């Protein structure tokens, strides 16, 4: 320090002055103190330095956010709060208009249709109308019907409403031309409803990855978990639900999924709707819903069915299966790419998609046009 | 008999009532209430967090984390304390967690001004930028060496401008404890600043 106090001999009463001034219990200007300070140059300099130092503190404050940073923060908080906005405030005609737009988008946004060369692909409704819902099984799966009796599935299992499906070691179910479910070890889900226009499933606990064929307008493929429902807009996503129901997650790797709380009408979030796009993870925990980039979190573990022994087949190179084929769909042997957690996993970045807004059409990965 | 209320009491009561109404609205599912709470208190949260962290490139994240924690906790708010006091507690807790996390990672506890060059440029202006930036850096270097309890009281009082009563209420400690910690923090900061020559003559001349 180059101020006067460093060069002067310290006054014997410096310590007392220092305490008084720093404690704020001394009001300078009183006669006694003024007298001492007039007589003692060292104390006068010290007190002066302290006062200047205290004045300087305000100048030493850290800089505030710039206007740009504040605008960014405002937007992030607004979006965070906007998660809770209820679409019911929209005009009824606008809601219906959005629903119509959503239906159109379902047709437009198809990440990976199950196609067979140039042959037209039968829709899910066509499959439903002509066949039972038989799922081919890879790995070990158990199922229970209304009687609650669990039994091991053979190579196929007939999916009916009310069926419960679980896998201790991991397995994969394939309903040709409709969907595949990669069940991680220890997971269980229910078949809630099946029909030409709807497929409703519920993950009781664990983690299941779904790869779904394109849905036509009016069709619905939905997976419920906790009090929430993830409806397919695109094609590939996974759902994780904790056993106690307190935490649920949806991560989308392809296409987009709409998440709402329609499975719990009494929830304050019952009318909340969000679209989760590829590369994003939605989760709710403790009454809070967040949407964040999925690269910041671990990708789901791929199930390892016992019967799968081949090397992973690149999704892009997968050969389509014929409708009458009884062999597992080649894509069933693919494993989701694993991703390691990098960086600060504690940080959360909220990127909320405005409710009722459909994602834009995605370009085809392989250059093929996607049929609406 | 009329009772005299301190100036501002009515305004404060009105503000508290408005905050409570917003919390209640949020608890009933009105998402706009959170946005309104941010509009009302966001700047103060930013200021408290900024004065605790010092110059940090992560200030935006800290503020947002505060509102994430607030969002989680709002359902539990019963109005037993003033909303602002409660919010300040959340802000302080989140900020301290942020600082501790950075310290565990081996980062500098107080981030250098280089990381916030644009902000500091706008903040300090052209004339006294060097002196003020140096002062800021020195100050937060010193604060980084003090115990957390002292830093809290010092930053909230000297930098944030909170009253002793506010600090006592926010930290849930007695006012004499606040005074004691403040005194020792002031003394430590001042002495350390002197020892390291952090109070250069030209800096002191700035306010002469």
3D structure, described in words:
- The complex is a heterodimer of chains A (372) and B (208).
- Chain A has 372 residues and is α+β, with helices and mostly antiparallel strands.
- Chain A contains 7 helices and 17 strands.
- Chain A is 22% helix and 27% strand.
- In chain A, α2 (14-23) packs parallel to α4 and α3 packs across α4.
- In chain B, 71% of the residues lie in helices and 0% in strands.
- Chain B contains 10 helices and no strands.
- In chain B, α4 (83-104) packs across α8 (164-171), α5 packs across α6 and α7 (148-159) crosses α9 (175-195).
- Classes of the chains: A alpha+beta (372), B mainly alpha (208).
- At the A-B interface, α2, α4 and α5 of A face α2, α3, α5, α6 and α9 of B.
Q: What oligomeric assembly is this protein in?
A: heterodimer
What overall form of chain B do the CA principal axes indicate? globular
Q: Estimate percent helicity of chain B.
A: over 70%
Report Rg of chain B. Answer: 19 Å
Class from secondary-structure proportions of chain B? mainly alpha
Rg of chain A, alpha carbons: 32 Å
The biggest sheet of chain A, with number of strands, parallel, antiparallel or mixed sense and barrel status, is: 17 strands, mixed
Instruction: Kindly state the percentage of residues in helix of chain A.
Output: 10-25%
Secondary structure: number of strands of chain B: 0
Coarse morphology of chain A: elongated
End-to-end separation of chain A in angstroms reads: 75 Å
Topology summary:
The complex is a heterodimer of chains A (372) and B (208).
Chain A (H helix, E strand, L loop, with lengths): L3 H4 L6 H10 L7 H9 L1 H19 L7 H16 L9 H17 L15 H7 L3 E6 L2 E3 L5 E3 L3 E3 L5 E4 L3 E5 L3 E5 L3 E8 L3 E15 L7 E6 L2 E5 L3 E6 L5 E8 L1 E5 L12 E5 L2 E6 L2 E6 L79
Parallel strand pairs in A: 9-10
Antiparallel strand pairs in A: 1-4, 1-6, 2-3, 2-5, 5-8, 6-7, 7-9, 8-9, 9-12, 10-11, 11-14, 12-13, 13-16, 14-15, 16-17
Helix pairs in contact in A: 2-4, 3-4
Chain B lengths: L8 H19 L4 H22 L5 H15 L9 H22 L12 H8 L4 H15 L4 H12 L4 H8 L3 H21 L5 H6 L2
Helix pairs in contact in B: 1-2, 2-3, 2-4, 3-4, 4-8, 5-6, 7-9, 8-9
């Amino acid at each position: 320090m180059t101020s006067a106090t460093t060069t002067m001999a310290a006054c014997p009463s410096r310590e007392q002055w220092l305490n008084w001034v720093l404690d704020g219990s001394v009001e300078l200007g009183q006669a006694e103190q003024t007298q001492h300070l007039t007589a003692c140059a060292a104390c006068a300099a010290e007190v002066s330095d302290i006062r200047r130092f205290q004045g300087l503190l305000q100048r030493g404050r850290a800089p505030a956010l710039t206007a740009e940073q504040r605008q960014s923060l405002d937007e992030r908080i607004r979006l965070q709060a906007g998660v809770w906005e209820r679409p019911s405030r929209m005009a009824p005609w606008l809601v219906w208009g959005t629903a119509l737009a959503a239906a159109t988008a379902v047709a437009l946004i198809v990440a990976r249709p199950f196609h067979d060369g140039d042959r037209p692909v039968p829709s899910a409704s066509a499959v439903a109308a002509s066949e039972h819902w038989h799922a081919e099984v890879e790995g070990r799966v158990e199922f229970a019907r209304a009687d609650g009796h669990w039994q091991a599935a053979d190579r196929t299992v007939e999916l009916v409403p009310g069926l419960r499906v679980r896998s201790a070691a991991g397995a994969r179910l394939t309903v040709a031309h409709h969907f595949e479910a990669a069940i991680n070890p220890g997971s269980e889900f229910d078949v809630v409803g099946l029909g030409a226009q709807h497929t409703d499933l519920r993950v009781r606990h664990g983690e299941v990855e779904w790869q779904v064929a394109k849905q036509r307008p009016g069709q619905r493929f939905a997976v419920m978990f906790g009090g929430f429902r993830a409806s397919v807009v695109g094609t590939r996503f996974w759902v994780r639900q904790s056993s106690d129901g307190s935490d649920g997650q949806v991560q989308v790797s392809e296409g987009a999924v709409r998440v709402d709380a329609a499975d719990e009408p009494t929830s304050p979030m019952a009318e909340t709707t969000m679209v989760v796009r590829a590369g994003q993870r939605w989760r709710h925990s403790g009454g809070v819903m967040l949407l964040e980039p999925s690269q910041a979190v671990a990708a789901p573990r791929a199930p390892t069915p016992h019967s799968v022994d081949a090397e992973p087949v690149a999704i892009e190179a997968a050969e389509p299966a014929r409708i009458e084929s009884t062999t597992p769909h080649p894509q069933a042997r693919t494993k989701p790419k694993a991703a390691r957690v990098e960086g600060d996993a504690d940080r959360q970045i909220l990127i909320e998609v405005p409710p009722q807004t459909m994602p834009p059409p995605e370009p085809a990965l392989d250059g093929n046009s996607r049929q609406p | 008999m009329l009772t005299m209320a301190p100036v501002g009491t009515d305004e404060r009561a009105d503000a508290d009532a408005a905050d409570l109404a917003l919390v209640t609205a949020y608890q009933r599912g009105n998402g706009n209430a959170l946005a309104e709470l941010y509009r009302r208190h966001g700047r103060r949260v930013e200021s408290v967090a900024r004065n605790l962290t010092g110059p940090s490139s992560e200030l935006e994240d800290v503020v947002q984390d505060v509102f994430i924690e607030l969002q989680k906790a709002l359902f539990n708010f019963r109005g037993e304390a003033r909303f602002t006091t409660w919010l300040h507690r959340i802000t302080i807790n989140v900020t301290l967690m942020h600082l501790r996390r950075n310290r565990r990672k081996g980062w500098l506890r107080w981030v250098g001004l280089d990381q916030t060059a644009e902000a500091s440029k706008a903040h300090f202006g052209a004339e006294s930028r060097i002196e003020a930036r140096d002062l800021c850096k020195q100050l937060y270097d010193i604060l980084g060496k003090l115990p957390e309890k002292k830093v809290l009281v010092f930053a909230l009082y000297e930098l944030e401008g909170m009253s002793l009563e506010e600090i006592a209420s926010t930290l849930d400690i007695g006012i004499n404890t606040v005074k004691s910690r403040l005194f020792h923090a002031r003394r430590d900061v001042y002495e350390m600043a002197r020892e390291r020559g952090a109070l250069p003559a030209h800096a002191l001349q700035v306010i002469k």
